[in-house]
């Protein structure tokens, strides 16, 4: 018996009857020889962790564009916080932690530079539209490894695709990531907003403080406990009516006071125009795209609009800024 087979047997004995067992995976699009040590979801987790798109998340915006300070979240730290919250819930509910972690680490791989500003820009300028969750799936299926993809299991790809509000994963592990993504960004975006002086703790509505707690840490603890308590021994991931409603109100409060606040988001119009200009430039200069990406376009009969979106969306904030400067600014101006 291999180590992988022993782990698969232990999953069957220990995990909840509602958990996704590695041995029951729907599998990969391309069959592979099984690893003798790692079950399929652990293997997926490792592939995502070692991918180039995962490493680029460290230089992609979460909420604040190029903040002054070392403690603001990036898209990478957001991803890690989602993963940790989701694993805490999964462990308590005896769900498959490897599957949860793989989905969490991969859910934002397709995000653009400059956060949702870049996403809005590409969605507006590209006639095919652009959504980061769909792009994340495209990254793992097609774009990683210079067009070879990561060949992940169906369950991981489903969880990545359906992590937004509009979607619903078919595994409980995917549902855990979906709700923990919302909890993570509400928690850490408020923490960053307070750090930036955009919000004060006293701005949080008193009735929400009474229900959820008077610090970001207490509110996070409240959310996690509520999910676990209300999802135990159920074939669903859910919150109590009171806490669920309070979370939605807190999310609406964040949209009004942070996500649409000129102090936090006033520079995003510039970022959007930068992304739009990069898209239009490469649409007219396809020959300047990487050879492997042009190979994907020819192999898969993709439109030039989709391929240009692939390239621009993959950029980090820093790379997008430098590329724009190289394309549009005289060399002497770059030192000003």
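-> sequence recovered:
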């Amino acid at each position: 018996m291999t180590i992988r087979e022993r782990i698969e047997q232990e999953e069957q004995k220990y995990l909840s009857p509602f958990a996704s067992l590695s041995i029951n995976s729907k599998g990969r699009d391309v069959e592979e020889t099984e690893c003798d040590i790692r079950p399929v979801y652990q293997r997926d987790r490792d592939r995502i962790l070692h991918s180039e798109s995962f490493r680029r998340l460290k230089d992609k915006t979460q909420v604040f564009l190029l903040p002054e300070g070392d403690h603001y979240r990036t898209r990478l730290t957001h991803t890690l916080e989602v993963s940790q919250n989701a694993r805490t819930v999964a462990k308590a509910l005896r769900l498959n932690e490897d599957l949860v972690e793989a989905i969490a680490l991969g859910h934002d791989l397709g995000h653009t530079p400059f956060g949702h500003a870049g996403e809005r820009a590409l969605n507006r300028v590209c006639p095919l539209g652009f959504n980061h969750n769909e792009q994340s799936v495209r990254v793992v299926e097609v774009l990683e490894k210079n067009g070879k993809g990561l060949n992940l299991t169906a369950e991981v790809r489903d969880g990545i695709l359906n992590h937004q509000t509009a979607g619903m994963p078919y595994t409980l592990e995917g549902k855990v990531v979906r709700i923990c993504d919302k909890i993570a960004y509400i928690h850490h975006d408020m923490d960053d907003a307070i750090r930036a002086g955009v919000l004060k703790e006293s701005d949080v509505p008193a009735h929400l403080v009474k229900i959820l707690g008077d610090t970001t840490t207490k509110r996070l603890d409240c959310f996690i406990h509520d999910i676990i308590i209300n999802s135990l021994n159920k074939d669903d991931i859910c919150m109590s009516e009171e806490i669920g409603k309070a979370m939605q109100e807190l999310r609406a409060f964040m949209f009004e006071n942070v996500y649409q606040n000129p102090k936090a988001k006033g520079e995003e119009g510039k970022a959007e125009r930068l992304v739009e200009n990069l898209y239009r430039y490469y649409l007219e200069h396809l020959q300047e795209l990487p050879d492997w990406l042009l190979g994907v376009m020819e192999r898969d009969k993709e439109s030039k609009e989709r391929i240009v979106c692939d390239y621009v969306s993959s950029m980090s904030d820093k790379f997008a800024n430098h590329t724009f400067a190289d394309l549009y600014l005289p060399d002497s101006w770059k030192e000003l």
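The two ends are 65 Å apart (CA to CA).
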